[in-house]
Amino acid sequence: MSQNELLELRNKIDDINLEILSLLNERAEIAQEIGKQKKKSGVNRYDPIRERQSLDLIMEHHAGPFEASTIQHIFKEIFKASLELQEDDHRKALLVSRKAKSDNTIVDINGEKIGDGNQRFIMGPCAVESYEQVKAVALAMKDQGLTMMRGGAYKPRTSPYDFQGLGEEGLKILRDVANETGMSVISEILTPHDVEKALDYVDVIQVGARNMQNFELLKTVGKVQKPVLLKRGLSATIEEFINAAEYIISEGNDQIILCERGIRTYEKATRNTLDISAVPILKKETHLPVVVDVTHSTGRKDLLLPAAKAALAIGADAIMAEVHPDPAVALSDSAQQMNIPEFNEFMNQLSPYRSESPIG
Ligand code: PEP
Ligand code: MN
């Protein structure tokens, strides 16, 4: 084949490409028109029977050289693209996305804000064990000027024989201590059934890692007027995490705080692997504040401080860590909770790294 013949064939291909392009766009405009008509008459946009008829018609006329399956695949993609064109814009952009809302969401917890550019701390015991235990932590937090106290009343434990938490009694202790010391309460709720009851006690509902894809729980907390702290699932991708938050916001509750708490990897040196880059990704992709839980991500007391420094440096809106007056006797996560002098040291060491002015 001469150079000229090749050039001629290539020019033909280019012309055909442009023809296909213009036909595709013409087709898209007609599909949009159909979409509008369907919307007016309240008809569902996706019509599998109609799609089947179109596909059959195409296949009746198809005579190669492409395989039938190839042609079907190409047309299926065209159908899909047209359907997407007909969908409302809000369905394409998730409600939690920056595309949907460019301003940062600021979650107000009794006047303390998460996501306003000031980096905050959420501290407290792993599990509520007694009034005295919670009170000791609350007083230490108060001395440090902190107000957001966490503590588990319902504990999702790996073994059914481990301490499961004090339940409602634990919530009551948290509320009483919080009222006496000026704290706010952040506590995990495990089932949709307990959400209503929790509203009387907590200021923020925590959805734990093991429940990140408990869709009924997500929908239930989406229907209430309480901030939700949503933890990343043990093996959840960022996309799955974002979609879990979307479940909540799509029910009407936009007061959502995302919490990176480490993910499961092959690495055994830490309890989980802290996915620190998830913080800027989540902040870029969504408008929600992002917290880093240094306790459950590292599972190691000696890593709490460096992990917290990294989290502050990378732009986390808050740090979460566990504090217990006597970790050696704690009923859960005994090895990784700080005692009160360690907590004070942790706070002192972090103070130069903490941003207290808007970081935008
Ligand atoms: C917790 O924060 O108490 C907890 C159980 O953590 P996670 O759900 O991240 O494992
Ligand atoms: Mn814990």
From TrEMBL:
Coiled-coil annotated residue ranges, if any: 6-33
InterPro entries linked: Aldolase_TIM, Chorismate_mutase_GmP-bac, Class-I_DAHP_synthase, CM_dom_sf, CM_II_prokaryot, DAHP1/KDSA, DAHP_syn_2
Entry keywords, A to Z: Coiled coil, Isomerase, Transferase
Domain Chorismate mutase span(s) in chain numbering: 1-90
GO MF annotation list: 3-deoxy-7-phosphoheptulonate synthase activity; chorismate mutase activity
Lineage: Bacteria, Bacillati, Bacillota, Bacilli, Bacillales
Species of the source: Aquibacillus albus
Keyword Coiled coil: yes
SMART domains, per the entry: CM_2 (SM00830)
EC number per UniProt: 2.5.1.54, 5.4.99.5
Protein name: 3-deoxy-7-phosphoheptulonate synthase/chorismate mutase
Stored PANTHER family: PHOSPHO-2-DEHYDRO-3-DEOXYHEPTONATE ALDOLASE, PROTEIN AROA(G)
